[in-house]
Amino acid sequence: MKQFFLFAVLVFVFSCSGGNKKQVDSTVVAYELENLLAVADQNVDNTVTVIGIVTHTCKHSGKRCFIESESQETSLRAEIDPEGEIELFTPELIGSTLAITGILKEHHLSEEYIDEWESSVNQIEQEGGSHEACAAELNNINDMRKWMEENGKDYFIIYYLNGLKYEVVE
Q1: What's the Cα-to-Cα distance from 145 to each of 17, 105, 165, rounded to whole Å?
Q2: Which of 5, 6, 20, 160 could bridge 77 with an S-S bond, Cβ 3.0-4.6 Å?
Q3: pLDDT over 60 (residue 27)
Q4: pTM of the predicted protein model
């Protein structure tokens, strides 16, 4: 009986500690975008709420938006999950701060895919494409390769959210 009581006390204490996250309800934790990305690998396939500023919504379908952190250092794509309550991400949301609840997912870009992408960008530049645009993409590719090397991976991870619902935060 004493062990059960100690276990119950520990569960209560640990469930009340916060850190870089906010409790929304009993099952969902709200993260500032940078804080979520710092622990994203531990939250894949979990329901989370992330807070960020909408920078883009898909004009054609409205089924996707991009949010970024206040520092503008990180961004995340949110897509509408058909099981959720979101109907559309409308252009009027651009510039708004949203708390989006959804299931965190990951996608791996293979080293082979990144090699092909780099080759394609180099080809476009050789054919007279915008040097600035190509340089920006090549910088992104180099950043991906650096991350892969630092983390001992043969792929680059892109995290995204299958959005179930959102709330405008003011």
Answers
A1: 36, 21, 34
A2: 160
A3: no
A4: 0.75
